[in-house]
Amino acid sequence: MKEFELKYGCNPNQKPSKIYMSDGSDLPIEILSGRPGYINFLDAFNSYQLVKELKEATGLPSVTSFKHVSPTSAAVGIPLSEKLKKACFADDIEGLDDSPLACAYARARGTDRMCSFGDWVALSDVCDVTTAKMIKREVSDGIIAPGYEPEALAILKEKRKGTYNIVKIDPNYIPEATERKQVFGITFEQGRNNFKINKELLGNIVTKNKNLPDGAARDLIVALITLKYTQSNSVCYAIDGQAIGVGAGQQSRIHCTRLAGTKADTWFLRQHDKVLSLSFLPTIGRPDRDNVIDGYINQNEEDVTADGIWQKYFSKQPEPFTKAEQREYLDSIDGVSLGSDAFFPFFDNIERAKRSGVKYIAEPGGSIRDDLVIDCCDKY
After folding, report:
1. For the chain, percent of residues with pLDDT exceeding 90
2. Of 54, 135, 154, 238, which is the most exposed, with the fewest CB atoms less than 10 Å away?
3. Is 32 helix (H, G, I), strand (E, B) or coil?
4. Residue 372: phi, psi to the nearest 5?
5. Does 273-320 match 197-269+330-379 at the fold level?
6. pLDDT, tens digit, for every residue of 71-86?
7. Are 108 and 64 in contact (CB under 8 A)?
8. Which residues in the chain belong to E strands, given as ranges?
9. Which CATH architecture has domain 273-320?
């Protein structure tokens, strides 16, 4: 296929629209179902780069959930605890422990379920049946992968009455070394970002504490590769092989840290026993559960637990989840890794990160206040 005509560009008024190779060669993709749009393909090609690089860096199957050209999360295929399965809405999946790819998907899709609503999924490996079954029941725009098992493809083709966007990409495709884009009719040209993120990158430890466990190094790599494919000026928290909070494209570094930290906090609080024990009515669907859980955690207790309100969602009235209880729970969290795509200009970022259990930080440095940032790290 030389080119593919899109329904429209970024917005419905931007027509005509298409994708093609500038040298006239065939596109490195097959469209197996649906009709992906302009934003879909931006998500598809950026998300696949992320999982391909994450797999190369860690050796583990990798998955990301993408939305509006930034990842909501990314994860590698590490088994989930029973509590984590429940928090990810994956505790009913047979064969989950036997599929590292499905484990990666459960983590990536389960981290920030509100932002993942209507996402684009990228897989580093051939899609298996277990992963396909999980994707089928979620609200999603499409998927890109290097291949699909026949039964898995049949399952995905049933999604959205046969219109689900399914893209197969050639895993051996290598893009040109130079990339170009146009803005306001003016062409920009630059070398592709082929900078390698791996454990060797983490060798310059500037704090008094020089201990960097292998698990923390892995999580820092997850965070940094996630950031590489996130809109610039961003911060990412990660633990246990998955990105748990992404603060993307904010104008201020501290706002990135706060936004990502708030998402990480919500992720941890979703695993609290009070949240896991919520007695939802069987008629409440998965997206509605996400919204209610978010409200239960982030709003005033009475918003969810008041008489006349809780009966809409629960078979029995939930116990209030007070801010003091939440703070006590979050204070028990430790070992979180944090990546930043630019230096921290002030130590307030470190103070905020510590409130979300951060123990390991990777950032480029170069601020005139690096010494103050390092001192704050040494304090903790």
Report:
1. 92
2. 154
3. strand
4. -70, -35
5. no
6. 999 999 999 999 999 9
7. yes
8. 3-5, 18-20, 29-33, 62-67, 70-76, 119-123, 140-145, 165-169, 178-183, 186-191, 235-239, 242-247, 336-340, 358-362
9. Orthogonal Bundle (1.10)
